[in-house]
Amino acid sequence: MSTIAQLFREKPCVFSIECFPPKQTTKFAAMQETLRRMKDLHPDFVSVTYGAGGSAGGVSSVQVANFLKNSLDILPLAHTLCMGSDRHKMAIQLDDLRAAGVRNVLALRGDRTPLRPESPDFHHASDLMDFIRDTAPDMEFSGACYPEGHPEADSLAADVANLLHKQQAGAVHLVTQLFFDNGKFYRFLNMARKAGITLPVSAGVMPIVRSSQIERTVKLSSASLPSDFTRMIARWQDDPASLYQAGIEYAVHQLRDLIEGGADGVHLYAMNDANVAAAVYEGIRDLL
Ligand code: FAD
């Protein structure tokens, strides 16, 4: 099985999907079925979130990554967080991943939530990356980036400049926060390249297929909404079937433009929905 670094060297556009572990262990069987269906979409890798949104408990990221790797033969990218962790806990987590044969991690600081203590050892994702590089040289790590700037950064330029810490630490690739306006991605990429970021970047796209997703997604991601997008929502928000279809079409349009525009990779925030992922994949498979 290739590693993520190899995939980006070999493929013009790497296709990946994000999934999240269910909060209840009883839902793991259903999730396994979802992942089995997603295997038909031939993702180059599947990333597994870690306590995203501040939740904890339930099925662990390691369990999901293990299932992907050893039952489905899909390359997993396991998210790991500074928040709530320290050098000791992280060493154990990396051992657990290694025992499952997982060698790729997405090293993140983590969302700040009242339930999650700051790490005494890792303040920025790049501190965690330094730790992984120095203590687990068999692991490859990737990092996050933000086409519209991280909300805590003074400016987009300052945030882009901070990506150099991730590159210098040895990250092999970056995955973007979701966005709805490809123009923001191209501008960000241009700035990053000018700032000396040479790492491959996966562009993250989330299909919005239900009106309930809109407020939460926008709040969590701080993504700006282009007029085509707000028009789509305004037109179909009271018509669930049409919104579903329009949301798929919007994501397909975004992804086709990104692939044709030369993106190193596209990352589908599929929200554990195999039907949505399959519908989007149908719309882009000829380009992959
Ligand atoms: P950092 O890289 O540490 O950046 C945080 C802030 O510090 C930024 O403003 C940055 O500009 C600045 N900064 C970075 N490095 C330095 C430095 N060396 N010196 C000074 N300033 C610096 N959250 C979860 O809880 N679980 C998940 O599974 C998860 N998955 C994610 C996947 C992706 C692709 C993305 C984009 C985000 C994900 N998140 C997840 C959310 C993420 O944890 C938050 O956005 C968090 O606030 C920042 O994480 P980071 O790794 O980008 O942090």
List key phrases describing it.
single chain, alpha/beta, binds flavin-adenine dinucleotide, globular, 288 residues, 8 strands, TIM Barrel, 11 helices
Short note summarizing the structure:
47% of the residues lie in helices and 14% in strands. The protein has eleven helices and eight strands.
Helical stretch tally: 11
Largest sheet: 8 strands, parallel, barrel
Number of strands: 8
Give the C-level CATH assignment. Alpha Beta
The assigned structural class equals alpha/beta
Taking all residues together, what is the mean pLDDT? Answer: 95
Query: How much is the radius of gyration in Å?
Result: 18 Å
Shape: globular
List the helices and strands and how they pair.
Blueprint (H helix, E strand, L loop, with lengths): L3 H7 L3 E6 L8 H12 L5 E4 L12 H11 L4 E6 L5 H13 L4 E5 L16 H11 L4 E6 L10 H14 L4 E3 L5 H13 L6 E5 L5 H11 L5 H10 L3 H21 L4 E5 L4 H11 L4
Helix pairs in contact: 9-10, 10-11
Describe what you observe in this structure.
By secondary structure, the protein is an alpha/beta fold. The chain has a single domain (4-287), classed as TIM Barrel (Alpha-Beta Barrel), CATH 3.20.20. Helix content is 47%, strand content 14%. It has helices at residues 4-10, 28-39, 61-71, 87-99, 125-135, 156-169, 182-194, 211-221, 227-236, 240-260, 274-284; strands at 14-19, 45-48, 76-81, 104-108, 140-145, 174-176, 201-205, 265-269. The chain has an eight-stranded parallel barrel with strand order 1-2-3-4-5-6-7-8, surrounded by six helices. Strand 3 (76-81), helix 4 and strand 4 form a beta-alpha-beta unit. Helix 10 packs across helix 11 (274-284). The model has no long low-confidence stretch (mean pLDDT 95). Residues 49-52, 79, 81, 108-111, 124-126, 144, 150, 152-153, 159, 162, 165, 175, 177, 204 line the site of flavin-adenine dinucleotide (FAD).
